Amino acid sequence: MAKPTLTAVRGMNDIFPPETIAWQQLEQSFRSVLSRYGCAEIRLPIVEQSALFARAIGDVTDIVQKEMYTFADRNGDSLTLRPEGTAGVVRALIEHGGLRGQTPRLYYLGPMFRHERPQRGRYRQFHQLGVEFFGIASASADAEIIALSARLLAAAGIPAQLQLNSLGTPESRASYREILLQYLRPQAEKLCGDCQERLERNPLRVLDCKVESCQLVAKDAPQLLQHLDPESAAHFSLLQELLQGMGIAYVINPRLVRGLDYYHRTVFEWVAEGLGSQGTVLAGGRYDGLVEQLGGPETPAIGFALGMERILALRALAQLAEADAVPALFLGALDDAALTAVFRQAEGLRANGLSVVVAGPGSVKSLLKQAQRSAARYQVLVGAADLAAGDVLLKEQEGQGEWRGPWDELHRGLTALGVDFT
Ligand code: ATP
Ligand code: MG
Hints:
single chain, alpha+beta, BirA Bifunctional Protein, domain 2, Rossmann fold, 16 strands, elongated, binds adenosine-5'-triphosphate, binds magnesium ion
């Protein structure tokens, strides 16, 4: 077959069943965990004004500098496909007054867009589940949202390591930035091209660069944790106490800086094995200054996002999902007259919760082939003659189970062969 000329955009995936079933199952178990932490869903536009991301994420970040899908719409307005979810949530809350005297806990789930080099675990359209807690400055919110993240990963069956760091306040970070630059500048030629280029703009980013030569330089760099202001230090130690109290294990990674500008104090990542440098499955942090920066009331906040594709890649769910996608019953009509009866029967059974596929009219041979392909557990082939005579034959496709009886009592036959209608 010739290669199709119309294809999906590079880095943007089509998702077919049974993989979609795996997605749904994962989403469902995540939603159930989220409700146990008092979180409710928010659904937002996928496109926002470009200015939102430039202001929220920061002009000097990789996302804003090179990864955004930005375009002018027909009115000439500059719009951007959202590269992340937090900015939109904050924009919406400010716009609708959702932060006045309230402490919302919200989650979102949906596609994000970043123009990155596609590879395993890294796509141009990918999906995030994100959670945001607003209005609580205490490290208790940090501890609770991290406990929630731990429970989500446990629900997904993903073993991962929790890494923690504190970035302090913007002031302590700014003074550390100078200390770090003094250390990095003399070694600039050892850094990768990206880091050399962003050294003056965003030196902290060098610390979590994945390139080996940069990691060697970063290894001995002065640590931000050593330069925290006293309040951030107290915040960080309360967080650790609370995590220990809940029995949540963590390691402190002094080089964890996160790619976005808006973080403040706590940052954290969950890193799983098996995806190489795409091993971060969930990442987040506190962003106390962002709401004000976007024109809202001063509001402390903390949040995280997890990458659905990375979680699913780690979870061999496809087989489990397959069982779910298989219909219980195949109903084949041998002629036009039987087709009406087959449709009526199928609708009745579906109304009672059974999964049914219908086919026909067709020959016995072609229907049997279709029945087999459907992988349905049971099958019935029926023609006008069978309906006139009264009885039909219900058969198990793989096993020996059989039931012969009146067409109108097919549900009885299914029950007899083990279908549970409750
Ligand atoms: P990375 O360091 O891997 O580029 P990031 O710091 O850019 O990640 P965040 O913006 O914090 O990632 O997004 C949170 C999570 O979303 C990541 O931990 C990851 O699981 C997922 N994610 C981010 N970018 C992509 C992508 N391009 N494709 C698939 N998943 C992604
Ligand atoms: Mg990235």
